[in-house]
Amino acid sequence: MAQNETIDPPAQADPEPPRQRALLPLLLVANSALLAVYMGVGSILLPTQIAEIDPENKVAVLGVIGGISAVFATAFNPIAGALSDRSGRRNPWILGGALASLAALAFLGYATTALVVGIGWCLVQATMNVYQAAVTAIVPDRVPVARRGTASALVGLGLPIGGTVGVLIASSTAEHLTTGYLVFGAIVAGSALLLTTLCRDVPRTGPAPAPVSKRAQLAAFLSALANHDFRWAFIGRALMVLGYFSVVGYQLYILDDHISLPDGLTPPAAMAVLTPVSMIAMALSTVVGGMLSDRWDRRKVFVGVSAALAGLVMVVPVISPTWTGMLVFSALNGLAFGCFMAVDTALVTLVLPRAEDAARDMGVLNIANAGPQIIAPFVASAVVTALGGYTPLFLVGGALSLIGALAILPIRSVR
To answer: Which cellular component appears as one GO term in the record (predicted)?
Structure first.
């Protein structure tokens, strides 16, 4: 199949069924819940819990737990995507992953040792990635190519909306961790119930796939990376995410140990201010970037420029390690990352090798989201420990994002 050829399911040509008209708003809710967990728990509740258990070694412990848990995210996302492809349905995987995440978050809320926290966060990452894999596949499943930039932008609003809500909930429950974890579990379960109840599944028609050997399954699983454009999209996403999470994953500790905060402003309270600033900027650039990329039929320029901007703004806290500097950094970083994620998601749906393997291949791409998070905690911990602080961390994160911008250039089939 040619690299720029796209096959859409026949159902997309039919009038949209009444119960499908709410698809994009429901996907926005589902993605907002997903990002609320990742941002609220990952940025505040988990670091707070670790700091209470082992304040002297919090940076290293967070690095180890974050890295190991990301292995589970990396493995479970494409596996769950491939299984949902094979079953021909998404809703059972969405609902099952969400309910399992509720149980895992409840377990994490009662953890009192670093080992149990690590086990709990691994379970959360595994179950949330089952949920994420099925939710992510719905856009290439059911949205026509001409609307994917707009659809990806709307779905991409899950990051600013979910991130803001998640951080606000986490900052208000940081002193009551058990309650905070249960609230996040309820949010994910509720969003899954809404999506699966109000938007019917669209099962694949035709004969079931013929059984294949384990070796053939592995070859098929990795076949997407043999596609030139998909491979470069994968590399660009991985570098961008690695640069972003190397810094953002340690933001609570950065505010505590590196930035001069105004008197009376605690790091969780500072996060509750910085996150809305970043997310409002992210929401603006997500919508504008997605819509303009559709109107001008251009993806690469938006992706490349936003990745380059994300790299350059990392110098702001280096030059000005102050509260004002962090506010400026948060706004500019939000603008850059929001535009990148919205338009890059649309770009990726246009370079998928086979539409019938959309969830599997999107799961492979999501390794570029989860995989760098395996490396990011170790990189961040090593940089902070070996190079003597958070200034080198900002510089490393910026360099990775700039290289990610260059990785977009070789893509040929998308303008």
So the answer is: plasma membrane
Give the burial class of 214: count Cβ atoms within 10 A of its Cβ; 0-12 exposed, 13-18 middle, 19 or more buried: exposed
Side-chain-side CA neighbours of 122 within 13 Å: the count stands at 14
Q: How far apart are CA 89 and CA 190, in angstroms?
A: 20
| Confidence grade of residue 215 (pLDDT, cut at 50, 70, 90) | low
pLDDT, one tens digit per residue, over 119-175 is 999 999 999 999 988 888 887 777 766 666 667 777 777 777 888 899 999 999 988
Place 211 in a pLDDT band, splitting at 50, 70 and 90: low
Mention the CATH class of domain 19-202+223-406: mainly alpha
CA–CA gap between residue 60 and residue 382 (Å, rounded) = 8
Paired tokens of 299: 């993806």
Distance CA 1, CA 62 (A): 44
- What are the φ/ψ torsions at residue 13 (nearest 5 degrees)? -80, -15
3-state secondary structure 332-369: HHHHHHHHHHHHHHHHHHHCCCCHHHHHHHHHHHHHHH
Best CA proximity match to 161, nearest among 33, 285, 38: 33
408 by DSSP, 3-state: which? Answer: coil
Report the amino acid identity of residue 132.
Q
% of the chain residues with pLDDT over 90? 30
| Nearest by Cα to 270 from 253, 285, 283, 282 | 253
Give the pLDDT confidence score for residue 81 in this predicted structure. Answer: 81
